């Protein structure tokens, strides 16, 4: 629910709402080398994305320059309205006699409240009307708003949560609550509504992304650890060593020259120099998620657009970029850009990797 706590269609809200202000964009650390299009394709059909909304969601994600995944938008819409453009959420009020009544609050497939729609609504289909119940208007507005929130989130590297998690929390509860808690509001806030909203969307986003190959169920076949070595710095450890204020992936402590392998099958999104990340490779996988391999010693062994198999060597570990010693920095992202990171260890475990 845009700038309100979403508690499901027809369920009352727990508290008042706020307004979010988008900040200027943050520097990202670069995509690195040559790249291929990041536009993702969604899974269409029963249990996934209704066909009539897939194109709108994909375009809304592609129009964002912050690496917003269409899988995130699709999972968000499912959470908000179940892809129902007529969905309405209500606020329960009490009159002077103690009688309760409900007032329509959030509306449409993306669950905007009136005040937020007034500032964020767009005429997506060019018919001259900004209609909150028209998915052709609401979905582009949702994408635009999430993109702005993602930019804002990247301005707060010290907050608890990755930029995409902060953006989702801001969409759900209002950015003022993200500011108040310096991160994703804790589970005690609003009976856990925002906390679980963010957690559920992050967990289910990959489900809505179509595999690179035709058909088939997502599996653990071909997935492996990117290097043979012990874990070092964990995900989201805070410190001044990182420009973001915290660690956006996990480190594998290995000496320079250790073979680095693709964690799973996919298509190389980018390969080459990436500033503070040094030499890096980013791979898009069958579920629309991305893996990143940074600080490689030499120019990667693969190029953008190249298909790779899980376990295929893509480079060798090193200490290029912003480092204090040789290691492999590894991330899992919902999009190709900096700031879309999620915790990589749970993701690898879901792919059947013991770590």
Distance between the termini: 36 Å
List the secondary-structure elements in sequence, H or E: EHHEEEHHHHHEEEEEEEEEH
Question: Into which percent range does the helicity of residues fall?
Answer: 10-25%
What general form does the structure show? globular
| Largest sheet geometry | 8 strands, antiparallel
Radius of gyration: 21 Å
Task: Tell me the number of helical segments per DSSP (H or I, 4 or more residues long).
Answer: 8
Poorly predicted parts? 2-39, 213-218
Structural class: alpha+beta
Overall pLDDT metric:
83
As a percent range, the share of strand residues is 15-25%
Total count of strands: 13
Task: Describe the fold and architecture.
- By secondary structure, this protein is α+β, with helices and mostly antiparallel strands.
- It contains 8 helices and 13 strands.
- The strands form 3 sheets. Strands 1, 5, 7, 8, 9, 10, 12 and 13 form an 8-stranded antiparallel sheet that branches. Strands 2-3-4 form a 3-stranded antiparallel sheet. Strands 6-11 form a two-stranded antiparallel ribbon.
- Strand 8 (279-285) and strand 9 form a beta hairpin.
- Helix 1 (51-62) packs parallel to helix 4 (135-153), helix 5 (163-173) packs across helix 6 and helix 5 (163-173) packs across helix 7 (193-204).
């Amino acid at each position: 629910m845009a700038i309100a706590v979403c508690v499901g269609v027809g369920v009352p809200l727990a508290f008042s709402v706020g307004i979010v202000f988008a900040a200027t964009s943050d520097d990202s650390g670069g995509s690195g080398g040559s790249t291929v299009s990041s536009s993702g394709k969604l899974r269409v059909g029963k249990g996934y994305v209704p066909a009539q909304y897939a194109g709108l969601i994909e375009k809304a994600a592609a129009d964002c320059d912050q690496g917003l995944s269409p899988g995130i938008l699709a999972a968000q819409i499912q959470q908000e309205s179940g892809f129902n453009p007529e969905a309405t959420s209500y606020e329960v009020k009490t009159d002077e006699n103690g009688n309760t009544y409900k007032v329509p609050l959030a509306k449409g497939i993306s669950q905007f409240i009136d005040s937020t729609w007034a500032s964020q609504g767009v005429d997506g289909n060019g018919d001259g009307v900004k209609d909150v119940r028209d998915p052709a208007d609401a979905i582009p507005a949702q994408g635009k708003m999430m993109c702005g929130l993602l930019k804002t989130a990247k301005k707060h590297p010290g907050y608890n949560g990755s930029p995409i998690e902060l953006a989702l929390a801001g969409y759900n509860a209002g950015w003022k609550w993200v500011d108040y808690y310096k991160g994703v509001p804790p589970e005690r806030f609003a009976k856990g509504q925002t906390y679980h909203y963010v957690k559920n969307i992050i967990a289910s986003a990959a489900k809505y992304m179509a595999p690179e190959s035709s058909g088939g169920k997502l599996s653990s076949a071909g997935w492996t650890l990117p290097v043979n070595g012990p874990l070092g710095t964990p995900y989201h450890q805070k410190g001044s060593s990182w420009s973001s204020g915290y660690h956006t992936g996990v480190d594998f402590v290995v000496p320079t020259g250790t073979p680095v392998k693709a964690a799973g099958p996919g298509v190389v999104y980018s390969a080459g120099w990436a500033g503070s990340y040094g030499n890096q490779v980013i791979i898009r996988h069958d579920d629309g998620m991305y893996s990143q391999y940074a600080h490689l010693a030499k120019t990667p062994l693969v190029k953008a657009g190249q298909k790779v198999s899980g376990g295929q060597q893509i480079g060798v570990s090193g200490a290029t970029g912003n480092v204090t010693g040789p290691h492999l920095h590894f991330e899992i992202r919902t999009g190709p850009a900096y700031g879309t990171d999620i915790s990589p260890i749970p993701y690898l475990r879901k792919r059947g990797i013991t770590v």
